[in-house]
């Protein structure tokens, strides 16, 4: 299994990640890596630890143990790393602000207080960089529109442009297409693939669509119970392998339903 032998050259290295909420262990020694120019998808049932792992990497959750190394720099638990950006299922744009303002916001972490207190203070060079990011995702012509007027797929692409304006080397995507129609999902996944191929980003995405994972990923990680079940080339992950990830959760649900039925019989 690849993750047992982490690549020293990988842009993102996650080793022995552990996280519990109360008595519930969500991550149990999770280890994986993602290299520059690679798309890695995480599959697994709800509660398997997929989203929590990404939230630990980006600094939104503090892991209980383990190390996270990005571009050779070991992160401090629970602290954000400036070279890691994340896009979410809920896109978190400011709908009343322009598309350009939303993308410029990706640079707030590197602006001084005097230049970040208001979108009106965004410097010209930042606006030019943000326009280039919008051009990269195919939305430069919508820069002056309010973000709330765009379609869901367009808003997700704006969120990706905002991540690019953060100058990230690692792009994390937590269910980026789960709320989109098939056509918009294709556009977003094609964009993530292009960012890896053409821009050299290391991309890790939580998906619930095994067919998209196989088509757009280099590798697929299968998670269950907070642990890595498999780390395989996407082309080698068949339907039976995917079904095995969800079978324990389905069996547990069926057992609980049977118990409730028996109780009220």
Structure keywords:
265 residues; alpha/beta; Rossmann fold; 2 domains; 4-stranded antiparallel beta sheet; 10 strands
Chart the SSEs and their pairings.
Blueprint: E1 12-21, E2 24-34, E3 39-43, H1 50-58, E4 65-70, E5 73-74, E6 84-87, H2 99-104, H3 113-116, H4 124-136, H5 152-165, E7 170-174, H6 182-199, E8 202-206, H7 210-216, E9 219-224, E10 227-233, H8 239-263
Parallel strand pairs: 3-8, 3-9, 6-7, 7-8
Antiparallel strand pairs: 1-2, 1-4, 4-5, 9-10
Structure description:
The chain is of the alpha/beta class. The chain folds into two domains: 1-80 and 172-265, 3-Layer(aba) Sandwich (Rossmann fold); 84-167, Rossmann fold. It is 36% helix and 23% strand. It contains eight helices and ten strands. It has helices spanning 50-58, 99-104, 113-116, 124-136, 152-165, 182-199, 210-216, 239-263, and strands at 12-21, 24-34, 39-43, 65-70, 73-74, 84-87, 170-174, 202-206, 219-224, 227-233. The strands form two sheets. It has a six-stranded mixed sheet, with helices on both faces. It has a four-stranded antiparallel sheet with strand order 2-1-4-5, with helices on one face. The longest helix has 25 residues, at 239-263. The protein is globular, with a radius of gyration of 19 Å.
* Biggest sheet details: 6 strands, mixed
Report strand order across the widest sheet. Answer: 6-7-8-3-9-10
Please count the helical segments. 8
Spatial gap, N to C terminus: 47 Å
Q: What proportion strand?
A: 15-25%
The gyration radius over C-alpha positions equals 19 Å
CATH superfamily of the largest domain: P-loop containing nucleotide triphosphate hydrolases
* Class derived from helix and strand content: alpha/beta
CATH-defined architecture of the largest domain:
3-Layer(aba) Sandwich
Gross geometry: globular
């Amino acid at each position: 299994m690849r993750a047992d032998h982490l690549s020293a050259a990988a842009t993102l290295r996650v080793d022995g990640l552990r996280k519990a909420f109360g008595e519930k262990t969500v991550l149990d020694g999770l280890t994986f890596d993602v290299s520059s120019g690679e798309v890695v998808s995480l599959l697994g049932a709800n509660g398997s630890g997929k989203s929590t792992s990404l939230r630990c990497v980006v600094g939104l959750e503090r892991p209980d143990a383990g190390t996270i190394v990005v571009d050779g720099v070991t992160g401090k638990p629970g602290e954000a790393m400036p070279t890691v950006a994340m896009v979410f299922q809920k896109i978190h744009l400011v709908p009343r602000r322009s598309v350009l303002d939303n993308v410029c916001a990706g640079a707030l972490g590197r602006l001084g207080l005097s230049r970040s207190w208001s979108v009106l203070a965004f410097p010209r060079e930042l606006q030019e960089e943000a326009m280039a990011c919008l051009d990269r995702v195919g939305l430069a012509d919508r820069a002056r529109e309010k973000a709330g007027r765009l379609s869901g797929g367009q808003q997700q692409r704006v969120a990706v442009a905002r991540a690019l304006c953060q100058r990230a080397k690692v792009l994390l995507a937590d269910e980026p297409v789960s709320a989109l129609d098939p056509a918009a999902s294709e556009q977003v996944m094609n964009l993530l693939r292009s960012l890896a191929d053409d821009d050299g980003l290391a991309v890790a995405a939580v998906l619930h669509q095994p067919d998209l994972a196989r088509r757009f990923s280099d590798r697929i990680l299968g998670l269950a119970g907070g642990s890595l079940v498999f780390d395989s080339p996407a082309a080698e992950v068949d339907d039976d392998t995917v079904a095995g990830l969800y079978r324990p959760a389905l069996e547990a649900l069926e057992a609980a339903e049977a118990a409730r039925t028996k109780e009220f019989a």
